[in-house]
Structure formats: C-alpha cells, structure tokens
Write a structure and sequence with these properties.
Largest sheet of chain B: 4 strands, antiparallel
Strand content of chain A: under 5%
Oligomer: heterotrimer
Pfam families (chain B): BPD_transp_1
Family (chain B): Belongs to the binding-protein-dependent transport system permease family. HisMQ subfamily.
Radius of gyration of chain A: 28 Å
Structural class of chain A: mainly alpha
Number of strands of chain B: 8
Chains: A mainly alpha (371), B alpha+beta (396), C alpha/beta (339)
Number of strands of chain A: 0
Largest interface: A-B, 59 and 56 residues
Distance between the termini of chain B: 30 Å
Number of helices of chain B: 12
Shape of chain A: globular
Helix content of chain A: 55-70%
CATH architecture of the domain at 82-97 and 155-364 in chain A: Orthogonal Bundle
Largest sheet of chain A: none
GO molecular function (chain B): transmembrane transporter activity
Structural class of chain B: alpha+beta
Distance between the termini of chain A: 63 Å
CATH superfamily of the domain at 82-97 and 155-364 in chain A: MetI-like
Membrane topology (chain B): Multi-pass membrane protein
Helix content of chain B: 55-70%
CATH class of the domain at 82-97 and 155-364 in chain A: Mainly Alpha
Domain ABC transmembrane type-1 (chain B): 91-384
Order of helices and strands of chain B: HHHHHEEEEHHEEEEHHHHH
Amino acid sequence: MSDSAKVTDKLLPDLPPPANSTGFIGWMRMHLFSTPANALLTLFAAYLLYILMVPSINWALISADWIGDSRDACTSGGACWVFVYNRFDQFMYGFYPEVERWRIDITFVLLVVLAAWLMLPRMPKKGLVSFITLIIYPVVAFFLLYGGSFGLEVVETHKWGGMSLTLILAIVGIVAALPFGVLLALGRRSEMPIVKSICVVYIEFWRGVPLITVLFMASVMLPLFVPEEVDFDKLLRAMIGIVLFQSAYMAEVVRGGLQAIPKGQYEAAQALGLNYWKMMGLIVLPQALKLMIPGIVNTFIALFKDTSLVLIIGLFDILAIVQAGLSDPNWLGFSVEGYTFVALMFWVFCFGMSKYSQHLEKRFHTGHGAR
Amino acid sequence: MPSDANKSPSAHTTRFWHDPAKRAILFQSLLVIAVLGFVGMIVQNTLHNLESRGITTGFAFLSQEAGFGIVQSLIDYTESSSYGRTFFVGLLNTLLVSALGVVAATVIGFVMGIARLSNNWLIAKVASAYVEIFRNIPLLIQIFFWYFAVLRALPSPRQSLEPLDNIFINVRGLYMPEPIYGDGFGWVVVAFLLAVVAVIGIARWSKKRQDETGQRFPLFWTAAGLLIGLPLVVYWIMGSPMTWDNPVLKGFNFRGGMTIIPELAALWLALSIYTAAFIAEIVRSGIEAISSGQTEAASALGLSKSKVLRLVVVPQAVRVIIPPLTSQYLNLIKNSSLATAIGYPDLVSVFAGTTLNQTGQAIEVIFMTMLVYLTLSLLVSAFMNWFNTRMALVER
Amino acid sequence: MKKMGLIAATAAMTVGFSVNASAADTLASVKERGFVQCGVTTGVPGYSNPDDKGNWKGMDVDVCRGIAAATLGDADKVKYIPLNAKERFTALQSGEIDVLSRVTTWTLTRDSSLGLNFAGVTYYDGQGFLINKNLGVESALELDGASMCIQSGTTTELNAADYFRENNMEFEPVVFDTADQTVKGFEAGRCDVLTSDQSQLYALRIKLSNPSSAMILPEIISKEPLGPVVRQGDDAWFNVVKWSLFAMVNAEELGLTSKNIDSMKSSKNPNIARFVGAEGIKGTGLSLSDNWAYNIVKQVGNYGEAFDRNLGTSSPLKIERGLNALWNKGGLQYAPPIR
C-alpha cells in the first residue's frame, strides 16, 4: 500500500478562511461593501458623517474654552462653555437661595438612594422601601424643599427653578398620577357601565388634547374654577394640570399591565373567596405592577421631556432658565452653547432611562417565559 | 369583574350590600352624584367668580373685529376680520403643518426604520444614532434649534438665493410663483376628476380580473398616466389658461407669489424629524415581528427579494405597525401646538394666544381649542381604526 | 370617586402651599400675611428684571416696594411673581397677586370689562419702532411692506395694525411669546422692525449683541400710560396703591429724597410736615401708619430717584424724563396734594 503514507488517523487542522473574508477586511466586505449599491451608500454615509462630525467635535471639544469668569475668557474661537460653567449653579438650582441649596441636594440624594435600592435586584425589604418612597418620601421632600417647619426657612416656589424644578415636576407628575392611573384603569376594565364610561371619557379626553392647552387651562382657568378665597400657587397649578393629564396616560399603561395577567389568576383569586379589592390588591396588581415598570419608565421619559413646556406658562425650568441667562447683556450670543447644554442634559437623562427600561423589558420577558 | 362572577343564587336573602349587583348600582349612583356634584361645583364657582370679578362672558366676541395681523393665512384675512375668523385661520394653519408633518415623518420614519435593519453596518449605526439622538431630546428644544439654525443660515432679502428662476430663499421665507387660474381652468379640474373616476374603475376591473384569471394589470403606470396625462392634454387644448404671479423684491420684502415662512419650515422640520425617530422604531419592531419563516417560505416559493418584501413582509408588518403609528400621528398633531414657541400662527398661537389675550375670555377660548384637538384626535383614530380593520387578517 | 380623591389631594397640598385669602379686604390680608404679592414681568430691564442673584430691580419693582413700605413699613416685604403678558390679568383677578405692576397699558377695555382698576400712571409711554440702522429708514412712514417683530398679547399688536392701516401700508407681523424672543427674532433678521413701547425699546436694545447697530425711530404711534393695577371693588386697597404712587411724585415735588428726608422731618414747611405725618390727616384715612409716606421715601426714594436709578441717566437705558418730568418742569407727572 504505497498510499498508506497519505493516510493519517488525525484530523488535519482547518485551513484558514480566505484572507479577504476574515479580520477587519472581511468584516468590511461583509458589512460595508457587500454590493456596489451598498458600497456607494457606505461612502455617502461616511462623507456625511465626516462633514457633520469633524467641525462639531472641533467646535465643542477641541477649540472650546471651559473655565473663566467672563466672556473675555473665550479666546480660542470654539464653544464658550465658560457661560455654562459660570451659571451652572443657577441652571441646576434656579433662584433657590444659595445658603439653602443643600436642601435640594439632600432631597435628590435621598431619592437616588431610594431609587437605587428599588432598582437593584438583590436588595431586601422592597415592599417597605417602596412604601417609604411613594408615601413618606414625598412629604419629607416637600418640607425639605419648601420649608416652613423644623426651623427651615420658607423658600417660595417662584424661586424654584432649573434642573431641580424640571425633575420635581416630572417626578411629582408620575408619582401622583400613578394612583389615579390605577383607579382609572380598574374603572375602565370594570363591568359597571357607568364607571366604565366615565373612566373612558376621562382617559380619552386628556389623551386627546395637547399638554400645552392643559397647562394654559391650569394657569388661566383653574383659578376661576375654585371658590374665590382659595388660590393656588402657580407651580401647584401646573402640577395639577400635569397630573390630570398624566393620569390618563398612566391609566393606559396600567391597563396594559392588567391585560397581561392571565385570566386564571383572577379566577383563582375569586375561587379563594377574595372580594374585588382584595383580589386586585393582593393578586393582580402586584403582578401587573411589575410588568408595568418599563411602561412607567417610558411614560416618565415622555413626561420628563414634556416638562420643558412649562416655559410657555412662565415657570423657570432648565430650558427657561438657560434662555433667561442667554439674554443677560454680559453673556449675549451664546445661544448655541446654551441650547446644546440643555439638549445634552435631557439626552443623558432620557437615554439612560430608556436603556434601563429596555433592560427591564428583557428581564421581565424572560421571567415570564414565552408569551 | 366580581359583579357577575360572584352572583349568589340566594341574593334576595342577603343584605343589599352583600349583593354585587345592587352594590354596583349603589356604587355607580354614588359615583354619578360625586361627578355631577364636582362638575356642578366647578360651574357654580366659575359663574360666581366671573360675575363677581366683572369679566365678560359668552361667545359674542367671536363676531368682533380682531384688529391684529396674522403672518400666514390660508383663507382671506385682514385686520378688520372677526375673532371668529382668527379661529379658522389658526385651525387651518394647524391642519397644514400637521398634514405636512405626517407625510414627512412617515417617509423619514420608514426609511430610517428599514435602514436600522440594513446589513450595511454603517447605515444601520447611523440610523440607530439618529433614533437615539432625536427621540431623547425634548421637541421644544429641537424647534428652537431648527428655527434659529434656519434663520441663521439664510441671507437677508436683498441677498436672496435664487436656486431656480423666480424662486427666492431668504431669512423671511421661501418665495415661489403663485398660479393664477384663468377662464377655462375649470375644465382641467374636470379632466382630473374624470381621470380619478376612471382610475377607480380600472382598479376594480383589474382586481376582479386578477381574482379570476390570475393575470396582473400594470395598474400603477396606467393610473399615473391617466392622472397626469388627461389634465395636461385638456390644459393644452384650452390654450394654457393659467399664468404665474412672480414674487418681486419691493422695499423690505418680496411681494406677490406664495411664501413658506421660516416658522412653518422650522416647525415642519422639527415635528417630522422628532416623530420620525419614533416611527422608525415602530417600523423596525414591526418588521422584526414577522417571523423569518414567512420570509423563508416566500423565498422557497421562488418570489424575488423585492416581491417577498412587497407581498409578504410589508402587508403583515403593517398590521403590527398601524396601531402605534396612529398614536404617533396623534402625538404629532398635538405637538404642532408648540408652534406658539416660535410664533407660527397655529390655533394655539393665534386663537388661544392673541385672541385670548385681546378678549380676556379664557374659558370660551380654551374650551373651543380643546374641543378642536379632541375632535381631530377622534377623527384620526376613527380613520386609522377603519384602515386597520381593512388591513386586518381575515380569519375564518 | 377619583375626583373626590383629587379634591382631597389638592386641598391637602394647598394647605402646604399657600391659601391666599383674596377676599374683599386686600389691605387687611396683606397686613396679616406680612408681605405684598406683586406681579411683575419675567424680565424687562429697567422695569422689573432679576439680577444674577435673583433680586428684582426696576421701576415697576420700586412701585411694589413703595406699597410694601407704606403698608408694612418695610420695602423688602414683597413677593415677586413673574408673569407673562397672557397670565397677568388672570393672576390679579384670581387673587394670586395683590397688585400688578408690569408695564401694563391703561385702556378702556381693561379698566371696564376685566374687573380691574388702574391706580395711576408710573410711566407715560408710547409705542415706537426699533430698526436696523443700515436699512437707511428715517421715518415710520417708510416702513411699507416691512416684517415686524411683536410680542403677543399686548396692545402693541393692535396699535401696529391700526397705524399701518391708517397710513395705507402693509406689514408682516411676526408674533413671539416673550420680549426676549422678539429681540432674538429681530437680531436673527427675521424682521426689519421691532415694535414695542418706546421705553422698552431702549431696554431691549441693550439686549442686542451690538446695540449701536439699531436705532429708535422718532414716531410714537400710540398713548401707553403704564401703571399699577388692582382688582375692582376694593376701594381701600385701591387708595393705598394710588397714594403710594402719589407720595413718590409729591416727594419729588417737595424736594424730599431718601437721603435728606431724615433732616427734613422737623421742617416747618406745612406740606412737608403733613407728608412725613407730623401734622394733618396722617395715615388714618388710608388705615396706614402715620409715617407711611416717610417710609416710602426713606426706603425707596422719590419718583425722580426711582426713575433715575432704573431708567434714567444712572441706568444703562439712559431714557430722558420727557413726558415723565414733573408737571412744573414740562412733564405730565402730577399728584394731588397730601392734606
């Protein structure tokens, strides 16, 4: 057997794939230049990116000025972040008195701690912490921010502003709208015709009108709706408008969550002899709420962006306060820097939250198995 | 839930609050009383407040002379028109920017959504960067940005750009010739309508024929030819009964012709780009929701790649896409109210802004404004629901 | 049920926030509350504008300070509530503020059908035009066809339309929500002209990046008497606001300033003696302390001082006194005597 030399009992190692289908070049061929049309598209997109990105990066980072006291510090021709640097405190805290700003800090640090506790999967006593976050914390936050007791000086709401006001509006909007949303959603799924129709009308009404008209209504008409001797603070009026509006959206999120609970759960609860509220409170809502969290986060993102509309009724949220800063005679002509800063602030918050919500969606999805 | 499920056969022996049916009636009556009481309280307070503060009420103001100018109006409007007319001017401007926005957002959104699924890495990344950037920045900031970016980029009227004859672009807007219809132009319109009727007829016939024989008819090209060709022929026969009113620079600005004001352009751009980011996501998830088995089966039948998309994937994806797409359209219409921030004369800016201020009749004005948006929302949902039912899978 | 919960919740929050008794007796509630609630602009230099520390400065602000000095003896006891043009009247009607001091023009409609009373005139203004110098326009009559930036919800919008109609001219109105945006629109070249009350034009001009590139045309096309506004039907408070303003004007006429009033306190001049509350009716008619007028001048200054500090030669605006000089110096500022 002269051929025996060619026989081997070991597998030969695979030959490497052709050089142009692996590594960087292969990847490029696969993903960028697979067909002539694709190659053209790639080149076009690359060109577009080049003409957009290079000047922007140069303006915003490379030839920008960062630190200084006045506009004279801006010498290199790029962005003048000195403007933002100088007014950063005002953008964050509004006209809140400087010596009292620690109160805002504590309020938000507390919130971050509580939220982190709830978000991290492994922390114990979630029930207690949610109770603290939703019931006790708002009261504490109110007394911290507004003052008036425990020896804290009163800080009128018209001095509130900047990023802290934006956050306060969005958080109050969500937290206060949640209970109303739950009630409305239960009402909408109720079999009592009148309850159901009232809830449907309420939800569809608020979902059908733009937030800006709701804010107009809150700022212009609300004072006429209440007895003469009662008067609302402007911020409170805006909050009422936002909560009325938001509760309708929240109701739809909750409804979605309720619909995802299998009918067997309801029937099992009823079979155990639980009445309606016990069934909802002990069996259905706890399961549904978990499913709703991504939806709630998404609503929160939408509301967070929408709070910028309060500018139109004259509250100084972060956008309004940056605009006010832009018209300071000493800092004229930095509107691009100002708007970029606000856009970046919003973007970081919204993008972060949307990633979190996507992460949750994935987690819950696997938890529930195939649907 | 419990009212039927818990119904006890011995209902007549239990106390009425243990009987779910009766309890439901009691609860609902209480709710009705509470709601009516609440509404009544508001109405009473309002009437009392209006009276005690000496504020005029009623809709009489609608026929009073408005006395202020509006920069863009689709119907005749002068300073001596009534407040009622400002309502319609604002409403039409809202409808205009919404319609333009819906079209542009849909186009950009579909392109971006499909681009996100492209196998070209760079294109997919650019599309997803687009989506992540624009949907996470508040629309109001984007409107401000586009408005001032547009204004900054454009020259003053005296240094206008003239890309085509008699079309001018400057910081005051885009000026175009306006067609003036002469005698006999009516026949061109009639010809167009005839073409529309003919196309509908041919479409029905071709569908029927396809159902019966399986033969396809080149409907698109026939329709395009009829719709464009027939009016053109009539136009030529009638001796071109249309002239153009060209914009001319006179003093400060161009006069004559049609204008697209920069406010409209900026609002349109911002609304389309913002909404398109959401639509792109909807389109992407809609297409991803179609199982690959469908595509594979279609390919196995020997359909070409474009036919797979056109006949199998898209019709199924559309069903998933339509409901969320509807709510994006509704959002766009509602978001067009942000026009007030840059002074585009939409309903909120003109009617709930200037008219409200000049008359001081907040309740009437806000009520009418909200009613308009509510009606628009309901109409759009109704239309999209109808469309959705038509598109829905017909199951046996 | 939900609605009832809502009421309860709002009621609970209201307790925490503020319950403003906007009952008929504003003076009593101001005294009880301990501060005056004053509606101002969201920022017009010279009239009411927050500085970088958030302290309010300006002519309208000084009127509020004067009222606080007269009623509470302390000019700092004011809560400023920034309002845009749209909200200002509702805020007053609803009792959110006690007095509106916010460059508001006195007109028949506002005085009669909005349930308001104008307490006087702090500044006699008129509408004018701000225009880019390089357009070479000398008079408002050359403005045919111009684009014009206007702030919405103001009398300006109506006056401009009237003026152009009257002179058979056309214009393109570009309407913005706030004064700041009108300036930005003007600066970006969106319009050829910015129209507003002339004094505000001076104020807005300093917000341009190159103020000397723009000029104010000589024409004044309207009468714009600006003054503080109160709710109708509360005459006692109406009197307090009215006479706080008159006291400032009278003080200038009598030569009383924040610097010399202490030394003039013992003056033999009967007018001055009545002014500082040493003689005459004192504060009883207004239900104020006897030294109410003294407090205004001591803490805020007389009309001339306030004008000079906020609008006149000592301010960046450098507006001439003009119509706002005292009546015996060729102007219109005239106050009834304190006796």
